[in-house]
Amino acid sequence: MFHRSPRIAAGLALTLILAGCSSTATTAPTTAPTTAPVTAAPVVTPAAATPVAIGSVVMIPKQVNNPYFDVAFKGAQSAATALGGTLTQVGPSAADATQQIPFIQTATTQKASAIIVSADDATAIAPALQAAMAAGIKVVGYDSSPAKGAYNVFVNQADTAGIGKGLVDMACTEAPSCTGEIAVLSAAQTATNQNAWIDAMKTTLSGDAKYANLKLVATVYGDDDPTKSTTQAQALLSAHPNLKVIVAPTTVGIVAAAQVVKAQGKTGKVFVTGLGTPKGMVDFVKGGESPVFALWNVTDLGYLAYAVAVDLINGTIKGTAGEKFTVKFASGSVDYTIGADGVVVLGPPFVFNKDNIDQFVASFGF
Ligand code: RAM
Question: How far is 345 from 300, CA to CA, in rounded Å?
Answer without folding.
Answer: 11
